[in-house]
Write a structure and sequence with these properties.
7-stranded mixed beta sheet; globular; alpha/beta; 23 strands; 31% strand
């Protein structure tokens, strides 16, 4: 069934919203002020599929990617930059308001830079056993095959052809193959997941493909298949060797923007705790002027951080420890010597740790987050525990998506 709807705003996932007597209806790829023709989506009474924009907004622009609207990777390429930036900042404002928090929110920092330095490509045999390699369609299970992605950094040039070649060699059957590509100083690092155990012949094929496509390294679920060069990235003055499939901030510009804010907020602190530290994008920079206690559940990341620390001259001590902060958060008595604390959890936030921090006497807390809702929840816990929200800065390293990074400073 088709119908006409009037779009009045853009929701937090990037969909246009029409208000109806039955409640809000969400229509992807639409903008405020537009009249659109849509059709129902079976099983999703509050969602519609866009058929045609009948009255376009003057804020609408032409998307720059031919896959936009089919591939689910980007939510917004069709909105003028000023309105897009205002919307993305509003995601933080709305999350704060829902948590009952009132604090100044800075202008959005654009940290797209050269583009994203990591991506996970999915591969699956689709209809009529046709192989598709690319990204998932919007809220759907099928894969949209791509030959290029304009939001990727030039350092990932060659990743898509390599992913296609790997998928063609492995021929994924019952479930998608995931091929994670990360740009490093030595070239592209790839980790393949979902293939199941590989025999010697198939591992040999992958090793030859890695050589053909000049990959720095290829692994399967972290198991080394072939390595042409050691995949490293620069973090401050340190060279960090990446564990297979390891996490990095999506863009180089994003990591730098977040690190600058963190360094500014901790000020002249002499002892700093870095929680959910990962490979050390903050710890290694903070250690240029302060002693750092670093914690993360990822043993591989902690090992890489320790190695980088030992191989880098001019750093103050970094005491790095593997610890699951969800199950065993740092307690108030463990933080007595800490002058400033930084935490940067995954999307689910750090509720257990925030509850313990609220009991502590740490004078400065810097909260870094990739999820506005869980950030607001955790900040609410800290404010209820006596902290004051001094500043909040949204950072956009996932341009064209609904994701926004946040760096906030809280003080006692």
């Amino acid at each position: 069934m088709t119908e006409q709807l009037a779009i009045i705003r853009v929701a937090h996932r990037g969909d246009g919203v029409a208000e109806t007597p039955a409640g809000p209806i969400f229509v992807p790829y639409t903008l405020p002020g537009e009249t659109v023709e849509v059709e129902s989506i079976p099983g999703h009474p509050d969602r519609r599929h866009l058929l045609r924009v009948e009255t376009a907004s003057p804020e609408r622009i032409e998307p720059f990617c031919p896959h936009f609207g089919i591939c689910g990777g980007c939510a917004i390429q069709h909105w003028t930059a000023p309105h897009y930036r205002e919307w993305k900042r509003s995601l933080v404002l709305e999350a704060l308001a829902q948590a009952g928090l009132d604090a100044p929110v800075d202008a959005l920092i654009d940290a797209h830079g050269d583009g994203r330095r990591r991506a996970t490509f999915h591969a699956r045999l689709g209809a009529r056993d046709i192989l598709e390699v690319g990204f998932a369609a919007l809220r759907a299970h099928h894969i949209v095959g791509i030959d290029r992605c304009p939001v990727l950094a030039p350092s990932l040039d060659g990743a898509i052809p390599a992913a296609w070649a790997i998928a063609e060699a492995l021929k994924p059957q019952n479930k998608p193959l995931d091929i994670q590509a990360t740009a490093t100083d030595a070239g592209i690092d790839m980790d393949v997941r979902g293939s199941g155990a590989l025999n010697a012949a198939r591992m040999g094929v992958l090793a030859r493909l890695a050589a053909t496509h000049k990959l720095a390294r290829i692994t399967r679920h972290g198991e080394l298949i072939a390595q042409r060069a050691t995949p490293t990235v620069m973090v401050g003055r340190a060279h960090v060797t990446l564990p297979p499939g390891s996490f990095l901030q999506a863009t180089v510009a994003g990591e730098l923007a977040l690190a600058r804010l963190v360094q500014d907020h901790v000020g002249s602190a002499k002892v700093i705790a870095d929680l959910f530290c990962g490979l050390g994008p903050f710890a290694l920079r903070l250690a240029e002027r302060a002693r750092v206690m670093a914690f993360d559940a990822d043993a591989g990341a902690i090992a890489a951080l320790k190695q980088a620390t030992n191989m880098t001259s001019g750093l103050k001590p970094i005491d790095a420890e593997t610890r699951d902060l969800f199950k065993r958060p740092l307690y108030a008595q463990e933080l007595k010597r800490v002058d400033a604390l930084v935490f940067d959890p995954p999307r689910q936030g750090a509720e257990a740790q925030a509850r313990e921090l609220a009991k502590s006497a740490v004078p400065v807390v810097v909260a870094v987050s990739c999820n506005a809702a869980t950030f607001a929840r955790d900040a609410r816990l800290l404010v209820d525990g006596g902290y004051r929200l001094k500043s909040i800065t949204p950072v956009d390293q996932f341009r064209h998506s609904a994701h926004v990074e946040i760096v906030a400073k809280l003080e006692r």
